[in-house]
Design brief:
The complex is a heterodimer of chains A (313) and B (621). Chain A has a domain of 197 residues: MetI-like (MetI-like fold, Orthogonal Bundle). In chain A, 80% of the residues lie in helices and 0% in strands. Chain A is globular. With 313 residues, chain A is mainly α. The model of chain B has no long low-confidence stretch (mean pLDDT 84). With 621 residues, chain B is α/β, with parallel strands linked by helices. In chain B, helix 10 runs antiparallel to helix 11 and helix 16 packs parallel to helix 17. In chain B, a hairpin with a 4-residue loop joins strand 1 and strand 2. Chain B is elongated. The chains are: A mainly alpha (313), B alpha/beta (621).
Chain lengths: 313, 621
């Protein structure tokens, strides 16, 4: 197991390099560099040259990347072009918000998605068809639009939850939870539908296998067949789809954080992208990439735990 | 093209295609059909709801929402189209190359697609938009390129599959050039999955475009786009919530149409529509109303079956009127060609028929107790501890994710309340009973040979100390040498424990070795039922004779193997008269006139279903 995790982590190093290098390259290719962005309408050539030197933009691409990379390894991701704050400090301050949102959404997706999928696979018939129908809609509704509808109904209309904003967990746990209900729902809706569909498909497939028939024929209880044998076998494909859904959540969180004014990484990404603040953007991309790697390693670990070793080799 | 015809036959497919065609067309000719200029302001009527003049209302500047939706759609659909173009070209190209060439290129494509598929797409799009501000084309082309990794995998898999097909290999050997092989054989095979994926990706690209527009990173106002319109609606949710309806609605409906169409296309190209309707509940075999009895069940038998029939929900009969008695320590062999309903008959006894089949009988008694009246839970109590079962494919009948020990312990616990030590002791006994070494307990099913797996599944079946063991072609999947060992084991268990055997087989050797009664089935009916020694010396039914003559084990070396000419008629196309008549050398007009009854109804020891029975060999002299 340790070897597996170590192998996966090693394999993810190129991913980190690739993404950071790509971001650097793209930034370098664009007309108008960071110095122009900062100066804005100030076109004084002297100030421009001075700033370029200060930001290190007069050096070669490789040199710049090397500086950033050596800094990143030490935990120094540079400074924001606009606020001058250290990028690691900015990312750090926003990580908790995003993680709250992402972890809660992942839990909701796992629980509700599996429950609905199991219901479909066990019960079948018209109720399962209804779940299918709702799933297609949930997958196809634009995330920002779903968020707006939720706000309109539950925050504005029924006033059960705050419209926007975030309260840190340590400050007031109850208000933290309330402030996250709608964002989590909005973020999780599509994922629930995807996971429910996968769970149902995988369960139905497994229930048709020879060993399920043999277990029934030898008198095992329905509960053991469904929840021990079928569920474990069906879990293998579901886990990998769940990983893809979790990675998709990162994109969704960008929209949701913007919509509900949650001061997380997603919102930071949008601001940085709109302001052309490349050091911040690079820091965020790095952070998201690390999250992706964590998800992928977890998926591999769970899959290895589910399947007997010799099957995977 | 047949895929499209299938889609058009499904109402869902027609509605989705219709909606997509309508939206795309209306947006393309937005200049002609839009009632207003999308930028024309009318400050006198801002935030109006739907009216006669403005069907979908107006926005904060009094601009007509319908016109903005149509013009915005042109922008949004165009960038989605760009994404799709990149997706298809890149995905197909890389997939076909990797699948057809194989080797290093294949590995590189696979690794790269692994990498691309594990990236946070939207975050990367934001980076692209930071560098190319408001350039939706750049963002969507990136999206297409990133997503194409998924398509490349699917295309690669299909290409490899087609490439290995014998007819394609033959075409290549015959000198067909690579481009022609690709165009003739590979492209048609991948077309179905590709258009299905394109439809699904179109939907998600549309949603991504809406998100980017909402974030204000897409097309710049006042130019409308679908995402931008949602952003505008979000500004107005307090003053005019109606604006959410048309702006989000058009995106949602179009995305739904793409998703549903993708599903329909996938089902059409996979030919697997209907698998979605399966469920655990549907796997319970329903019991129909009791059949009129032709004879009374024998309550001295462990298993007594009368007039057992299996029908599909549409009434097609698969098995009709099967009856036999199985006594303690006895062994009945169900014999016949494939498609005669042998497996269906035993599945009906265990109530494990495929979904959609219904079992009926006049009596189904286990040790004198009625099985037909039991519910699924009651049947569960009989299965394993009263009637146990071993399957034809032993490896597939074991759960691949659990060790042999796990599965045996579980089987023991299902039937006995016992401490852990007692369970372990019983498991060791079982393993010993089937002559397996104890170290097999730590192995997984894929680490077993076919013969070992069959022994494990016999051990599992014995865990509940059953009175009857039902074996469905227990030796068919095994090597010849192993077959004899498994048969010896079954006979030994039967002699030692008094357990009765019900064996389905098409192998007369199995019948001769292990059974005392043979029940010959043809086209869903029992045609002859007799003691095993009599069936070999004095077969009465011409089908039994033909089947015995076709036994490869009895064939003279150096002569042609005799076969039964013709094929078994499938259910629903069975003749009204004697079902074997079309293949029978002795058939007369009388045989084809009407149903032929068994000679010994009510059920006795032996009988046959024939008007012109063959004379016993001894009687001929």
């Amino acid at each position: 197991m340790i070897r597996l995790v170590a192998g996966r982590l090693l394999w993810s190093v190129p991913l980190l390099f690739l993404l950071s290098a790509l971001t650097f390259l793209l930034a370098w290719l664009t007309p108008g560099d960071a110095a122009r962005v900062v100066l804005g309408t100030n076109t004084d050539p002297l100030a421009y040259a001075e700033l370029r030197a200060k930001l290190g933009l007069d050096r070669s691409l490789v040199e710049q990347y090397w500086t950033w990379l050596t800094g990143a390894v030490r935990g120094d991701l540079g400074r924001s072009l606009f606020t001058g704050e250290s990028v690691s400090a900015i990312v750090d301050s926003r990580l908790a918000v995003s993680l709250s949102l992402l972890v809660l959404a992942a839990l909701v997706i796992a629980v509700v998605g599996c429950a609905l999928g199991l219901f479909g696979a066990l019960r079948g018939g018209a109720p399962a068809k209804a779940v299918d129908g709702v799933s297609v809609v949930a997958m196809s509704v634009p995330t920002p639009w779903l968020g707006l509808v939720l706000v309109l109904v539950f925050a504005v209309g029924l006033a059960w939850f705050p419209v926007t904003g975030y309260v840190p967990l340590v400050q007031a746990p109850d208000r933290w939870a309330l402030s996250l209900v709608l964002p989590v729902l909005c973020l999780a809706a599509g994922g629930i539908a995807v996971v429910a569909k996968q769970v149902r498909g995988a369960m139905v497939e497994v229930l048709g296998r020879g060993y399920v028939r043999a277990l029934r024929a030898n008198g095992l209880s329905a509960r053991r067949i469904v929840f021990r044998h079928a569920a474990k076998n069906a879990a293998v494909p579901v886990v990998s789809v769940f990983g893809v859904v979790l990675i998709g959540l990162l994109g969704g969180s960008v929209v949701v954080e913007q919509l509900f004014a949650l001061p997380g990484l997603g919102q930071l990404t949008v601001t940085a992208a709109a302001q052309h603040d490349l050091p911040v953007l690079q820091g965020v991309v790095l952070c998201f990439t690390v999250l992706v790697i964590v998800v992928n390693v977890l998926v591999d670990v769970v899959t290895a735990w589910l399947t007997p070793q010799a099957v995977t080799r | 093209m047949s895929v499209f015809r299938t889609v058009l036959r499904r109402p869902v497919g027609v509605v989705c295609l219709g909606w997509l065609a309508l939206v795309v067309l209306a947006c393309l000719v937005a200049d002609l059909v839009a009632p207003y200029d999308p930028r024309a302001q009318d400050l006198a009527s801002v935030y109006s709801g739907p009216t006669g003049a403005h069907w979908l209302g107006t926005d904060q500047l009094g601009r007509d929402v319908l016109s903005r939706v149509l013009h915005g759609g042109r922008v949004s659909l165009l960038v989605v189209g760009e994404a799709l173009l990149v997706y298809v070209v890149l995905g197909c190209l890389l997939g076909v190359l990797a699948g057809y060439r194989g080797g290093l290129l294949d590995r590189v494509v696979l690794r790269t697609s692994d990498l691309l598929l594990s990236m946070p797409t939207v975050v990367i799009l934001l980076v692209v938009l930071a560098i190319f501000p408001h350039d939706e084309s750049a963002a969507m082309i990136t999206l297409g390129a990133l997503s194409s990794a998924g398509l490349a995998r699917v295309v690669r898999a299909s290409t490899r599959h087609v490439r290995e097909e014998p007819y394609v290999a033959a075409a290549r050997v015959a000198g067909l050039t690579t481009p022609r092989v690709l165009a003739r054989h590979v492209l048609p095979a991948v077309a179905g999955p590709v258009i299905s994926l394109v439809s699904l990706i179109a939907g998600s690209a549309l949603l991504v475009e809406a998100s980017l527009g909402f974030l204000g990173l897409g097309v710049q106002p006042p130019e409308p786009s679908w995402g931008g319109l949602i952003a505008e609606a979000s500004q107005a949710i307090y003053r005019q919530p109606w604006m959410l309806v048309p702006t989000g609605g058009v995106v949602a409906l179009t995305a739904i149409a793409c998703a549903l169409l993708g599903d329909v296309l996938r089902d059409a190209s996979d030919d697997r529509a209907g698998s979605e309707t399966l469920s655990w509940r549907r796997m319970r075999t329903p019991v129909g109303p009791a059949e009129p009895p032709t004879s009374a069940p024998d309550d001295t038998a462990v298993l007594s079956v009368r007039d057992l029939s299996v029908r599909l929900e549409d009434g097609t009969a698969l098995v009709e009127g099967v009856g036999f008695d199985l006594h303690r320590g006895g062994a009945v062999g169900l014999v016949g060609e494939s498609g005669c309903g042998k497996t269906m008959a035993i599945s009906a006894v265990l109530r494990l028929l495929p979904p959609g089949a219904v079992v009926t009988a006049s009596a189904l008694r286990y040790r004198g107790a009625d099985l037909l009246g039991l519910d699924e839970r009651g049947m569960g109590a009989v299965r394993g501890s009263g009637i146990a079962y071993i399957a034809q494919d032993p490896v597939a009948s074991l759960d691949p994710l659990f060790t042999v020990g796990d599965q045996l312990r579980e089987a023991v616990r299902a039937h006995h309340r016992a401490t852990k030590a007692e369970v372990d002791r019983r498991v060791l006994e079982l393993v010993e009973d089937v002559h397996l070494p104890a170290d097999v307990l730590g192995r997984y099913p894929h680490q077993l040979s076919g013969g070992m797996a069959q022994r494990v599944s016999i051990a599992r079946a014995l865990a509940g100390d059953p009175a009857v063991l039902v074996a469905d072609e227990p030796t068919t999947a095994l090597d010849v040498t192993v077959q004899a060992e498994v048969l010896d084991l079954l006979r030994e268990l039967r002699e030692r424990t008094g357990m009765a055997l019900l064996i389905v087989t098409h192998d007369w050797g199995v019948v001769a070795d292990t059974c005392d009664t043979a029940v010959v089935m043809y086209a869903g009916q029992v045609v002859e039922r007799t003691a095993v020694d009599r069936v070999f010396s004095a077969p009465r039914h011409p089908y039994t004779r033909a089947l015995l003559a076709a036994d490869p084990g009895a064939a003279e070396p150096g002569t042609r193997l005799p076969v039964v000419p013709g094929v078994v008629p499938p259910p629903g196309r069975r003749p009204i008269g004697c079902r074997f008549a079309p293949r029978c050398a002795f058939a007369t007009a009388e045989c084809k006139a009407g149903p032929v009854r068994m000679t010994t109804e009510p059920l006795g020891a032996a009988g046959y279903r024939c008007l012109h029975p063959r004379q016993p060999i001894g009687a001929r002299a």
